[in-house]
Amino acid sequence: MQEAVQFSDAHFAASIKISAQAYLEKFYTELGFETVSAPIWKTTFRM
Q: N or C end: fewer C-beta atoms under 10 angstroms in the chain?
């Protein structure tokens, strides 16, 4: 996952924005994403 984030940073100008189920919040925040919506059952993250 970290390699994919590095590739995206190197080749694309836009930041990464994803949607995931709320139980994955800890996983994505540990990778450097920040929560940008209120977690219900699905939440949005951006890096």
A: N
